[in-house]
Amino acid sequence: MRPTLWQILDQTARRLLPFALSLLLLLLAIAPMTSPGFMRAGPMVTLLCVYYWAVHRPDMMGYLGGFLLGLLEDILMNTPLGVSSLVLMLTQFVVLTQYRFFVGKPFLITWWALALVALGAILLKALAVALLSGYVVAPAPLATSYGLTLLLYPILAWGFDRTHFLLTKES
Q1: Which of 9, 51, 104, 149 is 20 to 30 A from 119, alpha carbon to alpha carbon?
Q2: Phi, psi for 106 (deg, rounded to 5)
Q3: Which of 51, 67, 70, 45 is nearest to 145 (CA)?
Q4: pLDDT tens digits, residue range 22-81?
């Protein structure tokens, strides 16, 4: 039996929702803030998005989604093209190769694992930016960005859990 147009549209919307939410969060994260220096030391929102979906629904955010988010982030943040894409795709790769570890684990375990993944990601991104642009980021903004990333994850994970429920709910 062939699916109806509405069923096809529903399935397409469900499959694009994680990417669309991640894109929206990226745009919100780079919006001008009133706090001076916030952009330099903001949380790595795209990393959180890619990490969550790689842990909970790897089929919903593939490498192409991570690549496109990273490319857009590089364009909007004026970082060397490909740096964020590389970091996001490596994050997906690390999580997917350790997927059996994540299955059925409580939130605190995945949060702890994020702390390790995010540390590697932020250091790799800083190193790549330094090598490609010659701009060395001071340790304080890196530490602030890392801390904000870890603090923001429970909030985003809670919202993504609600979205995950909608994605798995039968039409």
Answers
A1: 104
A2: -70, 165
A3: 45
A4: 999 999 888 765 444 444 578 999 999 999 999 998 888 899 999 999 999 999 988 899
Provide CB contacts within 8 A for 136, sequence distance 6+: 126, 130
Read off the pTM: 0.87
Distance, in Å, from the CA atom of 125 to the CA atom of 112, rounded to the nearest integer, reads 20
> C-alpha angle with apex 113: 111 to 114, nearest 5 degrees?
60
What does the alpha-carbon distance between residue 49 and residue 30 come to, in Å, rounded to a whole number?
A: 15
Whole-angstrom Cα distance, residue 102 to residue 146? 21
Query: Tell me, what amino acid is at 11?
Result: Q
User: What is the C-alpha separation between 169 and 97, in angstroms, rounded?
Assistant: 27
Ramachandran sector of residue 82 (left: φ over 0; alpha: ψ -120 to 50; beta: rest)? left
d(CA 101, CA 112): 12
| Beta-carbon-side half-sphere exposure of residue 21 (alpha carbons within 13 Å) | 23
